[in-house]
Design goal:
Layout: H1 2-25, H2 29-34, H3 36-71, H4 75-82, H5 106-117, E1 124-128, H6 135-148, E2 152-157, H7 171-182, H8 184-196, H9 205-220, E3 224-229, H10 242-250, E4 257-263, H11 267-272, H12 276-279, E5 282-286, H13 292-312, H14 323-333, H15 337-347, H16 354-363, H17 382-394, H18 402-414, H19 421-428, H20 432-441, E6 446-447, E7 457-458, H21 462-467, H22 482-500, H23 520-527, H24 530-538, H25 546-549, H26 552-564, H27 566-575, H28 580-592, H29 597-611, H30 613-618, H31 622-630, H32 636-641, E8 649-653, E9 662-667, E10 672-675, E11 681-685, E12 690-695, E13 701-706, E14 711-717, E15 723-729, E16 733-738, E17 744-748, E18 758-764, E19 770-777, E20 780-787, E21 793-799, E22 802-810, E23 813-820, E24 823-830, E25 838-844, E26 854-859, E27 864-869, E28 872-877, E29 882-888, E30 895-897, E31 903-909, E32 912-919, E33 922-930, E34 937-940, E35 946-951, E36 954-959, E37 968-971, E38 990-994, E39 1000-1005, E40 1010-1015, E41 1023-1026, E42 1033-1037, E43 1040-1045, E44 1048-1053, E45 1070-1073, E46 1086-1088, E47 1094-1099, E48 1102-1107, ...
Parallel strand pairs: 1-4, 1-5, 2-3, 3-4, 33-37
Antiparallel strand pairs: 6-7, 8-59, 9-36, 10-11, 11-12, 12-13, 14-15, 15-16, 16-17, 18-19, 19-20, 20-21, 22-23, 23-24, 24-25, 26-27, 27-28, 28-29, 30-31, 31-32, 32-33, 34-35, 35-36, 38-39, 39-40, 40-41, 42-43, 43-44, 44-45, 46-47, 47-48, 48-49, 50-51, 51-52, 52-53, 54-55, 55-56, 57-58, 58-59
Length: 1237
């Protein structure tokens, strides 16, 4: 029936057109000649009507097909697609976008449609034009027409007004989701890809497009068109647009897919389209170079149609406007459609007389200020138009209401995301009815709807540019000053959060991650108002300078917020997927606040967020289940918000007392690292064939950069942090990546290097187009320079003398320092110069230096040289010829200056870092950082506030301390002092064994001589045993402790102690079992039965079973296979199992003859599945997942562990019933948890 009605409506419209055509044909021929022009316009209009009717019908048909296609998506597939982070409402069919007026832009539209239909045409079409020339309306019309034809696969309309629609990393995921919903064959390929690797959407633009779009399109052979509008409104820092760079890599691989792009002719986009691979595949149409008469004709038609529509619902407008007025409007529009649209909207204000509105515009003089002053006309009048409209809004009366009107305009212009009138009223403390009138009076400059809950935004970006520029908006009544209006929004945001934030805003169930809540979006809409969402995500973006935050009103509101609403704010950010905003906000506050209780609280909040970022980001409920319970005992956040905590585990032992300076610790085997010059990123390599870019505040992985073969030994960022250069060993390669896209810009094989040549240092040129490499071969140094693209050697320069430290960039040149003949000389050469290096300056070397003094590094700005000699470090001020520091430094390579040279860090011990600060007398010890892991290397951030250290399978981000803090010695993760087991050998594993009754636990460091017995009820350590020998394992049961080491096994009967027992020396109660077999005391070579009565000892090729009370050997058998990896008793003590080096599991039953009491060991059938549980799974069913979640027996998420507590590579786990012990290298060495499900 529906289809029949649509067909009937279509037939009716065609009959109407047939009648109109017949009336034209029946006119006398002479009359038709006289009215030729009018007839031509009528026929053209009829043709447009026919096209419109057909298009409307096709759109309805396509929408039905699209709905049917979406209805075929199964629930599992829909879940995968919905979990992909993509931009909301970015498609052509959303929002208030409008297409071209019927009859306008006909030639341009026809050309584009012809390109889209012709498979022989280039696959990329770029429509470029200046602001206001109508690019987006053309893109909208093209998208509508191509959709009607069934060929539109996806569309993305960029907008700087919306965070997701201006974020480059949302473009490809959004397009992929749209393609998957339209094409089932595309979806069948995409969904499994995302399921197997959910992190694809977080990878580089290159990997995003390759995996999310190119691979499915290649396999499915889909023919389609993709529209991307307003590329210039994406936040793109690349010289060549990142999207275009990536597109150029792949466009040839998908010949059946076409891309229609629009944007301003900005340099970065023009450069992108000059990329060789893309230039050959692109048709370029310059919109502002269209014949001016054609543009003027379209604008005139737009004006005429607009005024005719206005006349239909207004009275007394016959014959209006006059031809002279229309001519003047067209002249002033000067080819800019934005002027025409704004003018018609202004004149069509419902509360004003259209004739008076037009007269007001035409009476104003022309302005000469506007970015579009090109070939159109020298006197464009957008500024004049905006001034006239604002004059009407502000009125000519006393400016008593001007502040309120400016405040409303300021909120529209300065908001980071478009706000609705009701939201603006909420933030500014105005009634909604006070907000809408001033916005309505300038409706022609805004995208404004009648619904006060719908966002309002500038109609065109030229309006904000005008109103915040005092040289253009010269009337102070209208001018919006950002420094004045940002604080208004900041105070409004803080006050709103202080009034309305509360615990569990979205009424989420316990123990779930955000992604496990199917109706999370609906819950957010119900419980978190748009105003509160904006306040939570954006308040800090209005903190534009240090003076703003120091005003009493803002400081007071900020302190109140941190003290009462902080974790509730984190909860809202978590569900909004914006947890990273908390890092930026708190970092900004701590840097801009002066020393005060507020900044101390903000610092503690910063530690809370960065140290527990993973759980905060993944799960809002676990802020209360996990983050608060595992925060340090003395944390200000913990003390303030502990009443809100809802732990499902109890931390029996190991909870830190205070935040350590290692704010983030993660498992990672790092071989090379580099800070970005801006300090926001850290590049690291895992010793394999890839590098990663990490967030420098949270160490969250942002991008993976892969290149096969070898491993990276050096990494360096370009000065603008757009490129990363890596040097790979075996085989040698110099790889340069574009960081925004992930594309390999060049990969150079230095074939002219000799086999024993080593790369000592690398650096980019200031502009990032070239780089220099310092190589060394048998103490002979050479500097080579290369072009980044296409990756060719420019020049090679041998160097005389020994090069000290790294090479560096200075302006457009490369510099380096050498030592020769008692002096330190700085040299300079041009990156592209064939000339030999020239001397910049020569400074004196120390008189009578210690013999063997070796130069380590050179700081060029301050001319300071670091020497090392015989486990000591010297800092020499070459400019003033004096030593500034002499200190012990056993590890020569682990020394680093801050970028300004005023701070110095070095490795002073295996796990200790010393931080030195410049003082009048040289360098003074400022911090001692005992960070707990053996250090491989360390780097200081450019601002000197953070240190990146790595070693022993972990990476750490350390805070060097708040500015201005006095000298202090910090020990990482200080634990409860009642736990007295040894913490000196932090590079050793700790061994934890629980008693069968789960009342106590024995703790010892592997190879240490002390055993600590913990009471699991209180978490305290009432007993410490001095074993007198190295301990490799122990057990506790009631009052009995059993331990073993090399060639010994000992037992302690603790119940026999007298009142004089001091808890330390209980050697008198030892019973020792001597095996007589050297080398048996390895950790996995001995196991004690659960009842402590028997000990199994693996010795070379034999396995022995001993009786603990007597030390007697009960049985022995030969071991099968070569060696063993692990030895253990089953839980009932009746079987012993071991795993050989080949991975084969062998079990032995312990058989006892009831008559003779003879014990036998009898082999069971070999198996690959022995009766044991893996270290991440308890016998009761608790488990630790690969990403750090502790799951209860029912699968409930009980706790999210910090990364350094759960890594499979660096953590040992010991389960006993509801208890879990985690032991690791470095503090806190032992954490014991009681799982309470």
């Amino acid at each position: 029936m529906v289809e029949q009605r649509r067909q009937s409506e279509l037939i009716r419209k065609f009959k109407d057109i047939e009648g109109r055509l017949r009336s034209l044909s029946e006119k006398p021929r002479l009359q038709r000649l006289d009215e030729h022009v009018q007839d031509s316009e009528d026929v053209s209009g009829l043709l447009e009507d026919i096209r419109e009717i057909i298009s409307d019908y096709q759109v309805v048909q396509q929408m039905e097909m699209y709905k049917r296609a979406c209805g075929l998506i199964v629930t599992a597939e829909a879940s995968v697609l919905n979990n992909i982070r993509y931009a909301q409402r970015a498609e052509y069919c959303h929002g208030d976008r409008t297409g071209c007026l019927k009859g306008t832009r006909a030639a341009v539209l026809d050309q584009i449609e012809h390109w889209a239909q012709d498979s022989d045409k280039p696959p990329v079409y770029w429509l470029n034009g200046l602001a206001g020339t109508g690019k987006s309306t053309i893109a909208q019309t093209i998208a509508e027409r191509i959709f009607a034809d069934g060929r539109l696969g996806a569309s993305f309309f960029c907008s700087r007004d919306f965070e997701d629609r201006s974020n480059l990393h949302f473009v490809f995921p959004t397009i992929a989701v749209q393609l998957a919903r339209k094409y089932s064959e595309f979806r069948s390929i995409l969904v499994p890809l995302v399921q197997s690797d959910p992190t694809i959407v977080d990878e580089s633009l290159y990997n995003q497009m390759k995996k999310l779009i190119i691979k499915p399109l290649e396999k499915s052979s889909i023919s389609t068109v993709i529209v991307i509008d307003a590329l210039d409104e994406c936040k793109d820092e690349e010289p060549a647009s990142a999207i275009l760079t990536v597109l150029g890599q792949f466009v040839s691989e998908i010949p059946k897919v076409k891309f229609f792009l629009t944007g301003r002719p900005e340099p970065r986009i023009r450069e992108g389209l000059r990329i060789p691979l893309l230039a050959e595949a692109t048709t370029i149409f310059v919109l502002h170079e269209v014949e001016s008469s054609q543009v003027d004709s379209d604008i005139r038609l737009f004006f005429k149609q607009g005024f005719l529509e206005l006349a239909r619902h207004r009275h007394e407008l016959d014959g209006w406007p006059a031809k002279e007025q229309l001519d003047l409007l067209c002249e002033r529009a000067a080819g800019l459609f934005v002027y025409a649209v704004a003018t018609v909207k202004f004149i069509d204000h419902r509360n004003d007389d259209p004739k008076k509105q037009l007269d007001r515009l035409l009476q104003l003089p022309n302005s000469t200020v506007y970015e579009g002053m090109t070939r159109f006309k020298p006197n464009t009048t957008l500024d004049s138009l905006y001034t006239s409209i604002l004059q009407g809004a502000f009125g000519n009366d006393s400016p008593v209401n001007d502040p309120k009107v400016r405040s409303v305009l300021g909120a529209v212009i300065l908001a980071t995301n478009p706000l609705s009138p009701s939201t603006i009223g909420t933030l500014l403390g105005f009634d909604a009815e006070d907000v809408f009138p001033p916005l309505s009076s300038i409706h022609s400059l805004l995208a404004l709807q009648e619904d006060t809950d719908q966002p309002v935004r500038p109609f065109h970006k030229s309006f904000p540019d005008f109103i915040i520029d005092p040289t253009r908006c010269i009337n102070e009544r209208f001018h919006v000053s950002p420094p004045s209006h940002h604080p208004e929004l900041l105070v409004g945001c803080l006050n709103l959060m202080n009034r309305t934030l509360e615990k569990n805003m979205c009424k989420l169930p316990d123990a779930v991650t955000n992604s496990e809540v199917p109706d999370l979006h609906e819950r957010i809409e119900r419980h978190v108002s748009p105003a509160l969402q904006y306040a939570c995500k954006s308040w800090h973006k209005h903190l534009v300078d240090e003076y703003t935050v120091r005003t009493p009103e803002i400081t007071s509101a900020l302190h109140l917020f941190l003290e009462n609403k902080f974790v509730f704010w984190l909860e809202v950010l978590s569900v909004l997927g914006a947890a990273r905003e908390a890092v930026d906000a708190l970092d900004l506050v701590t840097k801009r606040l002066e020393a005060s209780p507020t900044v101390e609280l903000a610092n503690d909040c910063f530690h809370f967020v960065t140290g527990l970022f993973e759980v905060i980001e993944e799960s809002a409920p676990h802020i209360y289940h996990s983050a608060l319970p595992i925060s340090p005992q003395m944390s200000m956040v913990r003390k303030l918000y502990e009443p809100h905590a809802n732990p499902m585990t109890r931390i029996v032992h190991g909870l830190p007392v205070s935040w350590d300076l290692a704010s983030v610790t993660m498992p990672y085997s790092c071989s090379a690292a580099a800070w970005s010059p801006c300090g926001r990123f850290i590049a690291i390599s895992d010793g394999e064939s890839r590098a990663e870019i990490r967030d420098a505040a949270t160490l969250k992985r942002l991008t993976i950069l892969e290149f096969p073969g070898g491993y990276f030994g050096r990494l360096v960022f370009s000065p603008d942090a757009r490129l990363l250069l890596g040097y790979k060993y075996r085989p040698e390669k110099l790889i340069s990546w574009d960081l925004q896209t992930g594309v390999v810009v060049s990969a150079i094989s230095p074939e002219q290097w000799d086999d024993d040549t080593e790369c000592s240092s690398i650096t980019y040129s200031a502009c990032g187009t070239m780089f220099g490499v310092l190589t060394c071969r048998s103490d002979a140094f050479t500097i080579r320079t290369y072009n980044v693209h296409p990756g060719t050697l420019t020049y090679s320069h041998p160097v005389e003398g020994k090069v000290v430290g790294d090479i560096w960039t200075n302006g457009g040149c490369l510099r380096f320092a050498t030592m020769k003949s008692g002096s330190i000389t700085t040299w300079e050469l041009g990156f592209a110069s064939r000339n030999t290096p020239i001397e910049v300056e020569s400074l004196p070397f120390p008189d009578n230096p210690p013999h063997g003094l070796s130069p380590h590094s050179f700081h060029p700005t301050l001319s300071r040289l670091i020497f090392t000699h015989s486990e000591r470090m010297f800092v020499w001020d070459a400019r003033h010829s004096k030593f500034l520091l002499t200190a012990r430094s056993k590890w020569r390579k682990r020394i680093s200056f801050s970028s300004d040279g005023h701070l110095l860090i070095h490795k002073a011990g295996s796990s200790e870092i010393h931080l030195w600060k410049e003082s009048p007398d040289g360098y003074t010890l400022y911090r001692k950082l005992n960070q707990g892991i053996g250090i491989t290397d360390l780097l200081m951030s450019p601002d000197g506030e953070s240190i990146f250290a790595f070693g022993f399978g972990e990476i750490q981000l350390l805070r060097s301390g708040p500015p201005g803090a006095p000298y202090a010695e910090f020990e990482m993760n200080t634990v409860d002092p009642t736990a007295s087991f040894s913490r000196k050998k932090t590079h050793l594993w700790f061994i934890v064994e629980f008693s069968p009754d789960e009342a106590s636990a024995a703790v010892a460091s592997w190879g240490g001589k002390t055993i600590t017995v913990l009471d699991l009820e209180s978490g305290h350590a009432p007993l410490t045993i001095d074993a007198g020998m190295k301990v490799y394992g122990q057990r506790v049961s009631g009052s009995t402790v059993v331990a073993f080491g090399d060639e010994w096994v000992a037992t302690w009967n603790l119940s026999a102690r007298d009142s004089r027992y001091d808890g330390v020396n209980v050697k008198s109660r030892i019973r020792t079992v001597m095996t007589g077999c050297p080398g048996i005391g390895l950790l996995r070579g001995v196991s004690i039965s659960p009842d402590l009565h028997r000990i199994a000892i693996g010795e070379g090729t034999s396995l022995h079973l001993h009786d603990v009370p007597t030390g007697r050997c009960l049985a022995s058998v030969p071991m099968r296979g070569k060696g063993f990896r692990r030895l253990w008793f089953t839980s009932d003590g009746r079987q012993v199992w071991y795993i050989t080096d080949e991975g084969e599991a062998n079990g032995l039953a312990i058989a006892e003859d009831s008559k003779s009491s003879v014990i036998k060991l009898e082999y069971l059938e070999p198996t690959n599945q022995p009766p044991s549980t893996p270290p991440w799974l308890s016998s009761r069913g608790y488990q630790v997942t690969d990403d750090g979640w502790i799951l209860g027996i029912s699968g409930k998420r009980l706790l999210r562990l910090p990364p350094h507590w759960w890594s499979l590579d660096t953590i040992h786990r010991t389960w006993s019933g509801r208890f879990l012990a985690l032991s690791r290298v470095g503090p806190p060495e032992v954490i014991i948890l009681e799982l309470e499900e």
